[in-house]
Amino acid sequence: MVLQTSDLFLGTLDMLILRTVRAEHMHGWGIAQRIQLVSKDVLQLNQGSLYPALHRLRDKGLLEAKWGVSENNRRAKFYRLTDRGREYLGHETEKWRIFTQAVEQILQLA
Amino acid sequence: MVLQTSDLFLGTLDMLILRTVRAEHMHGWGIAQRIQLVSKDVLQLNQGSLYPALHRLRDKGLLEAKWGVSENNRRAKFYRLTDRGREYLGHETEKWRIFTQAVEQILQLA
DNA sequence: ATCCTCCTGTAGACCTTCTAGAGGAGAGCC
DNA sequence: GGCTCTCCTCTAGAAGGTCTACAGGAGGAT
After folding, report:
1. Residues of A at the B interface (Cβ-Cβ below 8 Å)?
2. How far is the CA of B101 from the C1' of C10 (A)?
3. Partners of B96 in the β-ladder
């Protein structure tokens, strides 16, 4: 099954992006591919979600961007996590855990 | 920690409501209280999310509603799952499992 | 030259939730 | 009778993230 970004979550996309960038500095296109690969094709971001999200995160000071050149010798914008981004990611991950546990409790109702 | 409905998810509210109603027919107010109770206060729905969601689910044919009287002798609208609602709930729950597993894979990146 | 892939970007629509209200009606108390 | 509290439903408009559907530049291969 393939899930669209909107199928089940909102705000989770930010966490996914930040987590991917934390592991390794990447450009936007690469982030989307990495998420798709790691999730075994379950998670597929489209460009209309990806780039607005990246700009939003940069505007919030959670990511820093600079132009560079990709492995394929293309012009690309590379992102890295700021300190605030790292802190924010920690909080969001914690919220995610609490939230999914709470949902599980509902789903396990008799 | 208390999570607002919007904190992390979109569309999940529908699943939560349907799951709660499946276990026991309830009125809207009761559904919100039950979700809060079962999730140990982590999940708190406000009325501006609850009632639009109930109406939406009814309009989609996933819930049926009828007026009745609550345990406290108040006028209340009771909901029950339709066959389509039951089927829809099954699909959404399956998507939820697949989605959370995929997110976990991202969160466990080296 | 031409085409494909890589890579970034935007506008407008859509949908869900939030904020911030309104209001009716039963129950308990003075 | 009047007052207040809780129960219970409901809505309008705003806010915010994602989707659809584009545009476009530039490198590499044929």
Report:
1. 1, 3, 6-12, 15-16, 19-20, 22-23, 35, 38-40, 42-43, 93-96, 98-103, 105-107, 109-110
2. 33
3. none
CA distance B75 to A8: 34
Lowest mean pLDDT among A35-39, A98-102, B1-5, B32-36: B1-5
Best residue in A8, A34, A39, A81 to probe B by mutation, most B CBs within 10 Å? A8
Domains and CATH numbers, chain B: 3-109 (1.10.10.10)
A-B CB pairs within 8 A amount to 121
Q: Is the pLDDT of residue A75 over 70?
A: yes
Average pLDDT over residues A40-57: 93
* pLDDT per position as a tens digit, B17-28: 999 999 999 999
Output the CA–CA distances (angstroms, integers) from residue B89 to B19, B40, B95, in the order listed.
Answer: 7, 23, 10
Q: What is the mean pLDDT of residues A45-53?
A: 93
Whole-angstrom Cα Rg for chain A: 15
Three-state SS at B82 = coil
CA A25 – CA A73 distance, rounded (Å)? 16
